[in-house]
Amino acid sequence: MKITFRWYGENDRITLGKIRQIPVVTGVVTALYDTPVGGVWPEESIARLTGVCRENGLECEVVESLPVHEDIKLGLPSAAGYIENYKENIRRLGKYGVKCVCYNFMPVFDWLRSDLNYALSDGSSALSYKRKDILRLNPDRSKLSLPGWDESYTRDGLRALLARYENVDGERLWDNLGAFLSEIIPVAEASGVKMAIHPDDPPWSVFGLPRIITGAESVRRLLRLAPGEANGITFCTGSFGATGANGLLSRRENVKRRNGSRGGAITDGLKEIADAAKGRVHFLHLRNIEITGEHDFHETAHPSECGGIDMYAVLKKLLDDGFDGYVRPDHGRMIWGENGRPGYGLFDRALGACYIAGLYEAYVKERAADAGKKRDKFGVRRNVNKLINNV
Ligand code: CS2
Ligand code: MN
Predict the structure, then answer these.
(1) How confident is the model at residue 185, as a pLDDT?
(2) In what order do the strands lie in the sheet with 125-130?
(3) Residue 345 lies inside a defined structural domain of this protein
(4) How many domains are contained in the chain?
(5) I need a labelling partner for 105 at 20 to 30 A (CA). Which of 205, 263, 289, 368 fits?
(6) Cα of 346 to ligand 2 centre, how many Å?
(7) Residue 29: nearest ligand to its CA?
(8) Rounded to 5 degrees, what angle do the CA atoms 149, 214, 197 make?
(9) Domain of 282: which CATH number?
(10) Is residue 37 a part of any domain in this protein?
(11) Helix 311-320 vs helix 268-277: angle between axes, to the nearest 10 degrees?
C-alpha cells in the first residue's frame, strides 16, 4: 500500500516541496487542469507533470480525475470520439508511469455539499450536506450557486445540460457506463493502468439526476460490466458511508463483532461492499463523516473516534482481503486558520496521512507478529521492510 496526497498541479498553493515534508507520503495524486474535459492530454504536459513530481522526490502514479465527457454519460453519437480520446489518455498516462486512474460517472455534478464552512465544536470547519438546503438550490427553481461547484457552466448552459438528462434514467446510465467500460478496460489492461471509479458523492440522486455508483450492489454490477482486473473502484469511505443504507458507520445496529476480529468494528455494510469489491479496490480514500439525519451529514477529522467510520476496521478489512493499492487522506477540515481549497487544505490532510500511516504500521506489525517467521501471501513481510525503511 502506498500513501499518497492529492496535489492540484503547479497552481496549487500547497507545493510539492510542502507535500514531501509529510513524512509518510511517497507520491501525489494529480491531474492536468488546463485541458478541456473530453480532450486529449498533451504528451508534453503529462511528461512535465510526472517529471516535476519525480524531481521533487514524489511518485506520480495516480491520476484523479480523468473526467468523462457528458456526451459519454448521455450516450450520444458524439460519445465515440470522446471515448477514443479517453483511450488515448489512458495509453499516454500508462507510458509515463501512471498506474491508477480515478474517475467518476456522476451526471453533471461531482461532489455536492450545501455548506463548505460547517462549524465543528472544536472551532474547525468542514464540508456538510443538508438535504433541505440542497433542495433550495434546485437549478430549476432558483439561481444555482453551488458551493465548490465548477463555475464554468453558465446558468443557461447548465439548464440545457440538465434538460438533456431528462431521457437518461439509471438504467440508461448503466448502459452508457457499460459501453464506455467495454471500450476502455482492454486499453487500460494493455497499458498497465487500473481504472478506479469513484462512488457518487453523495450516493443518491440529486436534482433528479440518476446516480448509480452507490453501494455493494452497484459494485457487483460494475464488475460484471467488463472483465479484467483493470475494472475496479475507488473505495471512498465518506462517499459510501454517507447513506445509512450502506451501513458503513459503526452504529450499534451495524456492528457485529466477528469471530477472530480483534478490534476494528467491521460492520455488515463494510463487509458487504468490501466483499463485493475484493481484488478490485485500486484506490482508497479515507474520509470520516457523521450522519446527522436522512441525507444529512458532515465531514470530520479522520480518526475513528472523530466520526462514525471505524478507519482501522476499513483498512484492516481491505488489507486482509489483499488490498495493495494507493490510499490518500480524503477531504480534511480547515484548521489552524488555514484558508484553503474546500476539503483540500494542507494541515488536516497531513494529519490524516500520518494517522493512516499509524494504522498501517500497527496492522503490518501485528500481522507480522501473528505470522511469525512464515511468509505471508499478502506480502506482509515485504511491507514491514518497506515500512521500516519509509517511516
Ligand atoms: C472528491 C471528488 O471525494 C473526493 O475525492 O473530492 O472530487 C473526487 O475527486 C472525484 O469525484 C473523482 O472523480
Ligand atoms: Mn473520495
Answers:
(1) 98
(2) 115-119, 125-130, 296-300, 288-293
(3) yes
(4) 1
(5) 289
(6) 16
(7) 1
(8) 70
(9) 3.20.20.150
(10) yes
(11) 30
Q: What is the 3-state secondary structure (H, E, C) of 136-158?
A: HCCCCCCCCCCCCCCCCCCHHHH
Q: Which ligand is nearest to the CA of 237?
A: 2
Q: With residue 349 as reference, give the H or E element that holds it.
A: helix 347-371
Ligand 1 pocket at CB < 6 A: 64-65, 102-104, 110-111, 198, 201, 236, 239, 285, 330, 343
Three cell numbers, residue 54? 519525480
* Cβ partners under 8 Å of residue 154, min gap 6: none
pLDDT at 335: 98
Residue range of the domain that includes 249: 2-108+169-292+300-390
CA-nearest of 108, 106, 107, 71 to 86 is 71
Walk along the chain (391 residues) in steps of 10 and give the mean pLDDT of each run.
97 97 97 95 98 98 97 97 98 98 95 94 97 81 59 79 93 98 98 98 94 97 97 98 92 50 71 97 97 95 94 96 97 97 97 98 92 60 57 45
Mutate to test the pocket of ligand 1, among 201, 282, 326, 327 (most ligand atoms within 8 A of CB): 201
What is the residue with the minimal CA distance to atom 5 of ligand 1?
330
What pLDDT sits at residue 389? Answer: 57
pLDDT of residue 157: 83
Question: Helices 79-95 and 170-191 sit at what angle, rounded to 10 degrees?
Answer: 30
Give the three cell numbers for residue 346. Answer: 494542507
